[in-house]
Amino acid sequence: MTTPIKAARGVRDILPAERAAFAVVEHAAREQARRYGYQDVELPVIEPVELIERGVGGDTDVARKELYRLEPHGDNDADAAARLVLRPEATASMVRAYFQGGLNQGPQPVRLFTIGPFFRHDKPQHLRYRQFVQFDVEVIGDDAPAYDAEVIELTWGWLASVGIEHVSLELNSIGDESCRPQYLAALRDYYRPLKDRLHPDCQRRVEANPLRLFDCKEPQCQPFKEAAPRITDHLCAPCAAAFEEVKSLLDAAGLEYRLNPYLVRGLDYYTRTVFEYQHESLGGAQNSLGGGGRYDGLAGALGYPETPGVGFAGGVDRVAFMLQHDLGAVAPPVVADVLVLPMDDGLDRAAGQVGRLARAVRSTAVDYSRRSLRAKMRAADKTGARWAAIMNAEEAERRVVQLRDLTSGDQREVAWDELAEALA
Ligand code: HAM
To answer: Which of 176, 277, 311, 396 could cross-link to 350 by cystine, CB 3.0-4.6 Å?
Structure first.
């Protein structure tokens, strides 16, 4: 016998028990987005590699180490030139779609959201998957700090509506192209003499992309963060004013946050506001339930007219996990409300007909197996069904079933013609 084929490493099946928690989390996300006037979009899962490299930044872990690159298809020139990847995130695609679809021509800003799978070739571990689901929201076309606060309020409300409490909201501003260069120079000056003591990746980052030094999780690099210059001490007047505005709007909304000068968020497109929701129960490197920020330079980096934007992505897998394990709030999925249980052989046709009648008012499954009634009843109890419609050959002949309420145990004879009414 050949070895049974299993799923690829780092990806998983979301089976019914877990899917129920996903459904709750996704439903809450859609409701919350619509409540704030965000419109649903669907974007391709494959994108040109340049979109990601120029979007999230070629020097980020996401672009350098974690991209799933597709083999070029065919050898005609156009195909070979179109180097494609599986999308690792949604923001660059959202901005592309905003321009490509002409949404930049209508009333601004445009509020969009999407829910779907994303792919990162990361080291698989608990709550870090190679395929995962994000709830992503973006406001494109206006730089008012009030949109930053709105996105934070919306996403906070999403987590609250799912029942997740004690979330820590971490907040920072990482400046923009007018103040960040001076800050990065100060950061390089600080780190240069320490270079030999850093992890090899970080040694390179000192010159190439020093902000990424704060993303590093290597123990050997941690002691140096504390004394490093802080971006919030180097903000230009407009960035500082925008940051004050965001904070005062969050205060007005009654949202508590923790200022975290080391929060830089792993992707290069951010300007000004960055934020993240963390939850200690997730532990360690996977404690982030979601995060986002402003990206006023992203459209320009992708070759489109300079256009501001702000957004967020939440990890649906992680929120669903918390819902299922910490809150225990999701009822096991019910296979169907009604189970039709034929007791004799040769009743498939009659059982099918009874199923069709019941299905007009309730979800209904027919047990066509050749098991005993006892075995069928035992299985019925496990599915969470509310009623069993039981019938033997004689009853089928008379076009009646024994309708049993599986909660109370009450049972009565019901004619097929009256079944829908009895179940309604
Ligand atoms: P991100 O921080 O890279 O941001 O991802 C957002 C969330 O997706 C994380 O906080 C985490 O919950 C979840 N996530 C990321 N990677 C994994 C993984 N391997 N397994 C499970 N969950 C994961 C972004 O992607 C930005 N596009 C957010 C954004 C939108 N910024 C502005 N607009």
So the answer is: 396
* Cα 275 to Cα 172: distance, rounded to the nearest angstrom: 6
Closest CA to 58 of 205, 185, 272: 205
Whether the bond between 109 and the residue before it is cis, its omega within 30 degrees of 0, is yes
What's the pLDDT at 330? 65
Lowest mean pLDDT segment, chosen from 163-167, 235-239, 242-246, 288-292: 163-167
Identity of residue 357:
L
Q: What is the pLDDT of residues 149-159, one digit of tens each?
A: 999 999 999 99
Quick one: how many helices (H) and strands (E) in the chain? 15, 16
Q: Are 124 and 94 in contact (CB under 8 A)?
A: no
Say which residues have a Cβ less than 8 Å from residue 385's Cβ, sequence separation at least 6: 334, 335, 336, 337, 338, 339, 365, 406
The residues, any chain, with a CB within 8 Å of residue 256's CB and separated by 6 or more, are 169
User: Whose Cα sits closest to atom 21 in ligand 1?
Assistant: 128
Distance CA 330, CA 349 (A): 36
Residues in the chain: 424
User: Does the beta carbon of 132 lie inside 6 Å of ligand 1?
Assistant: yes
Round to whole Å and give the CA distance between 136 and 142.
18
For the Cβ of 311 lying below 6 angstroms from any atom of ligand 1, the answer is yes
Closest CA to 367 of 330, 409, 335: 335
Q: Is 290 in the pocket of ligand 1 (CB under 6 A)?
A: yes
Instruction: List phi, psi (to 5°) of 140.
Output: -115, 135
Q: What is the pLDDT of residues 5-26, one digit of tens each?
A: 999 999 999 998 889 899 999 9
Q: What are the CA-CA distances from residue 27 to residues 115, 136, 257, 365 (Å)?
A: 10, 13, 26, 25
CA distances from 367 to 152, 398, 417 (A): 49, 20, 21
pTM of the model: 0.90
Q: How far is CA 400 from CA 361, 418, 421, in A?
A: 18, 9, 14
